[in-house]
Sequence to fold (195 residues):
Amino acid sequence: MSIVLFLSLDVHAIVTTGSRLEPTISAHGLGGGRWIFTAAVVLLAAGSAGFLIALIGRQLTVWKSGVAAAMAMWIIGLICIAAFPKQDWSQPVSISGIIHWAASALAFLSLPVAAILLARPWLRDRNHARCARRTLIAGVISILAFVPLVYALGVDAATGVDWWDVVTFGYTERLIAAAEAATLVVIGKWALART
Fold:
């Protein structure tokens, strides 16, 4: 449902404004689509919490684990993204914008870590190896989705060319979001699978 809501916001932006999706996904939270954006993020957080509970219930991980901590950081990051609007850079810097930025970084980095930590102990298990491999691959792909941003930051550091002139962050963020959505689907399928 979250993916459908996010896509509807992008399609609406393309159709009504001719946007090429250069603004970030969170920019939808600054306009009339704020409630749709917020609902999509809250649904994503709730679904993620459900997956974590299912993983623990199936004994694929435990509450006191790196997996649970990373998933909790992903969920907390999402809740903060929904609660604190993105910084409108045409305005003075706000506390809300800083919290939103930090929460986004926390969330986007935590989910791939959770996937990799979840997969590692099950890679040789007879019943769970296939799901573990898929989860590991999805986590690694999510990390690789950061490569354009890391490259842009490296160019900025080496040459002084602003990183946002090297890559269009809206596209890069959507690449990362797509990889992480796929990772969450893989985790969810494993959490709910009958093995």
Notes: The CA atoms of residues 103 and 137 lie 24 Å apart. The first helix runs from residue 2 to 17. The helical segments are 2-17, 34-57, 66-83, 95-119, 129-144, 147-159, 163-166, 169-192.
